[in-house]
Amino acid sequence: MPLTRSRLFHFLRQALGTFAAFLIISLLMDWYRAPAVPPQAGELPLHTLQGRHTTLAEAGGSQTAVLYFWGSWCGVCRHTSPAVDKLSRHGVPVVGVALQSGSDADVRGYLKTQGWQFDTVNDPHGQWARPWQVRVTPTIVLVKNGRVRHSTTGIASYWGLRARIALLDWLG
Fold first, then answer.
1. What are the backbone dihedrals phi and psi of residue 121, each rounded to the nearest 5 degrees, phi first?
2. Which pLDDT tens digit goes with each residue over 84-143?
3. Which of 44, 86, 96, 170 maximizes the CB count within 10 A of its CB?
């Protein structure tokens, strides 16, 4: 069958409707699964396995920083972590929180095996993540000037995260 103008219009309308539904569902899921932000979250101390001692406010400065809750046991994290690592390699401040992934040596070994270099706090018993009420891994929290500005859960791409960061930077 030849592609007529009306068929093309119908296809585009269907595609736009599907995209809008996906976007709305995604935003609703992010809202529902959003972590709780502990009081003074920007000032919580972060001691990374790489020897860095900082806070969320200091980690990003005026840049948007990524707080990334993940686990070595998390299948979806294996797809999202390379995107987060790429952000880190391209100058985006990233602090990962390895949830219940073993000892410091276990997490260091896992990061090395995967080739990921983003700063990581080990949270072997979930004590650091508990006040955030993280219910889903991966959970990605975008922080600017020490304030949580956005969060998302589940699989994420480099370009999807980059777009969210650019939007936050543009909004100020």
1. -95, 130
2. 999 999 999 999 999 999 999 999 999 999 999 999 999 999 988 889 988 889 999 998
3. 96
Distance CA(101)–CA(125), nearest Å, equals 9
Label residue 124 exposed, middle or buried (CB < 10 Å: 0-12, 13-18, 19+): middle
**Is the alpha carbon torsion for 87, 90, 92, 98 positive or negative?**
positive
Of 171 and 1, more confident: 171
SS3 88: helix
Question: Could you identify the residue written with the tokens 């900082």?
Answer: 54
Average pLDDT, the chain: 89
| Predicted structure pTM score | 0.83
Q: Quickly tell me which residue has 């709305």 as its tokens.
A: 24
